[in-house]
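Friendly challenge for the regulars: who can give me the structure tokens for this chain first? No prize, just bragging rights.
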Amino acid sequence: MRWRSTLLCGLLATTLGTSACLMPTRGTPVFVDSFAGDYWSGEGLLVEVSPDQKQCRVALRDSALIVREEWVACTSVHPRRGR
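First reply, four minutes later:
Bragging rights claimed.
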């Protein structure tokens, strides 16, 4: 099942000329709480913080392994520590 999603993502990126399968090269590694959205993994990248520091823009993979950038509450975003 996972290889199908990966193949579909690769075909989508080739067809549309987008990088929907690749995480952005910029950003700080973070973990986002599951109640902030429906994501395949809570591990993502913090891309931007709003001026009032209440909303954070994060890049995460959804259940189809497509990378989405969305605004979530900064209270849901936590630093990811090395293992």
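DSSP finds one helix and five strands in the chain. The chain has a mean pLDDT of 76. Your move, everyone else.
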